[in-house]
């Protein structure tokens, strides 16, 4: 029997059907050490000094101890207040502040001081801005190219609802190495988990990136454990491949506070491996699938592998 055969189609736990806030006990494979290292403290101090927000802190990421020890931080631009209120996300919702004109230079300075070979930049949703914040992504990419020209750049953007085409065109023209936009979950769960977004609009955004520049790697991710069914996850993989997405990430959803969507299931590491094998068979250039996988977890190492995988694939096609 394959590992996938052990994944139930859907497992509503007693916690899932109760309205009372319940502290769910995490399985052993989710537990992580408290962050205490010197590298962690230095990364934290630099982010404070440069007034930069990180998704690592805002999303209460379980990998922060490991990543910051290695000086890998994912910078969150355009403030720390989001105009959406997704049921899985810990970032504050409200009316964001003015865009910080110094932010692009500060991001580049952080990349230089941390000595980053690869940087991941994300942002809150800025539905209040006429360009959705695309212009700030462009400025950050340009500042990085100027100050740290050898650093490879990965961006993880919002869906730019209502202004997607212009936003994608501008950002792709700035030339990031990887364009990531997460589908987050299966389409059936969008109304409750990602109510402000549309599944097919997100897929179209990633198609649009490839249409403008097929050489930019595209990446997308889903969280598991929200009540999705196995065949729905397979369908999402097929949809992603149809949109030409190169890299799939899959990780366990964790409830940031009792007010957020409940964890319906803790997916086992074996089941993640099985999903990963299916994704590779479906043709993704790169796949990261484990309970603690996050969009930016090991992003630099995975980027290098993905690039090597593409080169090997092209050489094979050319019969070398
Ligand atoms: S996985 Fe990503 S968000 Fe989490 S700590 Fe690492 S870099 Fe930050």
The succession of helices and strands, N to C, reads: HHEHHEEEHEHEHEHHEHEHEH
Q: How does the overall form come out from the CA principal axes?
A: globular
Strand tally: 10
State the low-pLDDT regions, or none.
Answer: 1-22
CATH fold category name? TIM Barrel
Task: Write down the Rg.
Answer: 19 Å
Output the strand order for the largest sheet. Answer: 1-2-5-6-7-8-9-10
The CATH homology group name: Aldolase class I
Q: Which quaternary structure do these chains form?
A: single chain
Per CATH, the architecture is Alpha-Beta Barrel
Residue share in β-strands: 5-15%
The level 1 CATH classification is Alpha Beta
Are any ligands bound, and if so which? iron/sulfur cluster
Largest sheet: 8 strands, mixed
Helical residues, percent = 25-40%
Count of helical regions: 12
**Domains counted in the coordinates: how many?**
1
Structural class: alpha/beta
Region (Disordered): 1-28
Keywords: 4Fe-4S, Cytoplasm, Iron, Iron-sulfur, Metal-binding, S-adenosyl-L-methionine, Transferase
Pfam families: LIAS_N (PF16881), Radical_SAM (PF04055)
Pathway: Protein modification; protein lipoylation via endogenous pathway; protein N(6)-(lipoyl)lysine from octanoyl-[acyl-carrier-protein]: step 2/2
């Amino acid at each position: 029997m394959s590992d996938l055969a052990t994944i139930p189609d859907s497992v509503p736990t007693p916690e899932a059907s109760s309205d009372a806030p319940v502290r769910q006990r995490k399985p052993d494979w989710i537990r992580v050490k408290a962050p205490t290292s010197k590298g962690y403290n230095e990364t934290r101090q630099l982010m404070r000094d440069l007034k930069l927000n990180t998704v690592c802190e805002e999303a209460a990421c379980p990998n922060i101890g490991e990543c910051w020890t290695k000086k890998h931080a994912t910078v969150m631009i355009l403030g720390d207040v989001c105009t959406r209120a997704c049921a899985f996300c810990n970032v504050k919702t409200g009316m964001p502040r003015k865009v910080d004109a110094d932010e692009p230079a500060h991001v580049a300075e952080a990349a230089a001081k941390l000595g980053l070979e690869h940087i991941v930049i994300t942002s809150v949703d800025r539905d209040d801005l006429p360009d959705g914040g695309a212009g700030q992504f462009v400025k950050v990419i340009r500042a990085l190219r100027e100050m740290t020209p050898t650093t490879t750049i990965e961006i993880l953007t919002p869906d730019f609802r209502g202004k997607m085409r212009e936003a994608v065109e501008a950002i792709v023209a700035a030339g990031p190495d990887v364009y990531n936009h997460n589908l987050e979950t299966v389409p059936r769960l969008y109304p409750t988990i990602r109510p402000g977004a549309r599944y097919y609009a997100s897929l179209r955004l990633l198609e649009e990136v490839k249409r403008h520049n097929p050489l930019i790697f595209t990446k997308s991710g889903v969280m598991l454990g929200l009540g999705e069914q196995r065949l729905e996850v397979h369908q999402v993989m097929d949809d992603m491949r149809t949109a030409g997405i190169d890299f799939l990430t899959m990780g366990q959803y964790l409830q940031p506070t009792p007010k957020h969507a409940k964890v319906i299931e803790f997916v086992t590491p074996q089941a993640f491996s099985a999903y990963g094998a299916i994704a590779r068979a479906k043709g993704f250039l790169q796949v990261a699938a484990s309970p603690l996988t996050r969009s930016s977890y090991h992003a630099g190492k995975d980027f290098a592998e993905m690039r090597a995988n593409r080169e090997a694939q092209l050489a094979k096609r050319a019969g070398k």
